[in-house]
Amino acid sequence: MRTTILFGGSNRERLVSVASAQALHQALPEADLWWWDVEDKVHVVQSRQLLEHSRPFEDEFKPGTRGIPLAQALDKAKTEDRVLVLSLHGGSAENGELQVMCEVRGVPFTGSGSASSHLAFDKIAAKRFAALGGVTPPEGIAIENIDDAFAEYGRLIAKPARDGSSYGLIFVNARQDLVAVRNAARHEEYVIEPYIAGVEATCGVLERTDGSIISLPPIEIIPGEGNFDYAAKYLLKSTQEICPGRFTPEITAALKTQAMAAHRAMSCSGYSRSDFIVSEKGLVYLETNTLPGLTKSSLYPKALKAEGIAFPDFLRDLIELAVRQVRK
Fold first, then answer.
1. In this predicted model, which residue has the larger pLDDT, 171 or 217?
2. Which of 159, 181, 220, 316 is 20 to 30 A from 44, alpha carbon to alpha carbon?
3. SS3 319
4. Cβ contact 41:67 at 8 Å
5. Is 111 within 8 Å of 86 (Cβ atoms)?
6. Residue-wise pLDDT tens digits, 224-282
7. Is the separation of the CB atoms in 51 and 18 below 8 Å?
8. Overall average pLDDT of the 143-147 stretch
9. Which residues of 15-45 are buried (b: 16+ CB within 10 A; e: fewer)?
10. Sign of CA dihedral 97, 99, 104, 107
């Protein structure tokens, strides 16, 4: 089959997608490159365009320029016997919509299927399923109870129920922050939780071609300015990501077990990464990402390296799994 890296997408995480695609293409130099723009059109991109790129691709493809609609591109992928390596983040690329468009056409793609993607992307539903699978999520707080909750806990955290990469994250440390949460919740549904002190950790899960599923070494995260939001993830050089994390053997084992439990509870496939807080009272589950970032500085590739798995080998195994899934 022809391998094609699909990157971009119609949401605000396109820059991270480009950085992931650059790393993917360096590992899979034979792959074709398709850019999905904000108008839901797909463009063929040359290797040099991607590898030398340092600005948004919107500068290359202005509205109205030639490209084909996403649905037509997926029809083309089916006709040309392509397998899609997804270098995408957030929005319809991660919430299962793209995945179901591929599934109904029989187009193989890397990562979890539409149902798992949709479930994991919805933080409220994901917490429910993860809890049924044996992990411990934080308590949810209704927007109408936010004042009482702030009085009780002293600190809260609020985040969009359906978004990624810590966009829209609000730390409620003072009463004026409650206004910001209410204003944000007028435009989209928010998850509100007590702020839980502790060490931030993330743990990847990987499906192998022999049918086994393993947990990768957990990563300890020390945010550069105290909070692991979008800026800390992608912009601050002072953020430290220690892999393997400096956890006790017992905590390391628990992180691996709970990441695996979350992966299975949401029927993820291929790979996933789950985030936790290591608190004084134990592990607290935050969320599961079905399309973790794959840039050179992303967390998942660091865990692969610590496990001794070469990045190109990881990608080729994902492609093999994707093709097998379609041919079942």
1. 217
2. 316
3. helix
4. yes
5. yes
6. 665 544 444 544 466 889 999 999 999 999 999 999 999 999 999 999 999 999 999 89
7. no
8. 94
9. ebbbbbbbbbbebbeebbbbbbbbeebbbeb
10. positive
